[in-house]
Amino acid sequence: MERLSEPRTMELLLRLLDKLDQVVFLLDALEQFLRRGPEIAEALNETVISMRKGVGAEGRTPWEDLLRGLSRLKEVLESPQVKALFRSAVLDARSVAVVGKAARAMVEASAEVSREPKRIGLVGLLRALGDADVQPALHFVLAFAQRFSRELTEGTNDLPGNGLQGGRDPSGDSQRNGARAL
Fold first, then answer.
1. How many CA atoms lie less than 13 Å away from 159 in the CB half-sphere?
2. pLDDT value at position 123?
3. Vertex 143: Cα angle to 141 and 148 (nearest 5)
4. How far apart, in whole angstroms, are the C-alpha atoms of residue 34 and residue 39?
5. Averaged in consecutive runs of 10 residues, what is the pLDDT profile of the chain (182 residues)?
6. CA-based Rg of the chain, rounded to a whole angstrom?
7. How many CB atoms lie within 10 A of CB 91?
8. How far is it, in rounded angstroms, from Cα 86 to Cα 80?
């Protein structure tokens, strides 16, 4: 009882209470794992037995196939293309989030169009351009177009032979062809 009144004990009890949901979750997960223990052990045992017996089509064991596959995976991961991919912003969390939003929007739009197919003319398109729900996406597309153009024309172009290498206007006028800057 004396230890319960110690400040350190009180602090630890409060921390435990703050994490009680996580502790309960872990205990539930452990309990489920232990219930399935015999089933998991049997599956592992069967896997080991079949790997001991098995020999691949070319006389290799599964372990040799695994090592060969890992070696090939290492070659791919160390390739200049994959290294460039990891250095780029393609896998940046923000890029992935934008792609995820775009994918969800595409799926929802596809479902909507298949449910309610309709024809949209020029007047309908102009009306849609003023729609408050369309404006953020339209602004995004225009901002993306400007920044993508800059990426294509500034510095060294990482896309050889892409045909997208427009030159900068020497006058510095970014409003070529009547386009209004954002």
1. 11
2. 93
3. 90
4. 10
5. 79 82 79 77 80 64 81 87 82 86 92 90 92 93 91 67 49 47 48
6. 30
7. 10
8. 10
Q: What pLDDT was estimated at residue 177? A: 46
Secondary structure of 135-164 in HEC code, one letter for each residue: HHHHHHHHHHHHHHHHHHHCCCCCCCCCCC
pTM: 0.43
Check if the beta carbon of residue 106 is closer than 8 Å to that of residue 99. Answer: no
Query: In the structure encoding, which two tokens stand for residue 34, read together?
Result: 């232990």
Residue with tokens 């309990």: 31
Other beta carbons less than 10 A from residue 13's beta carbon? 11
Q: Which CA distances in Å does 135 have to 22, 130, 154?
A: 43, 7, 28
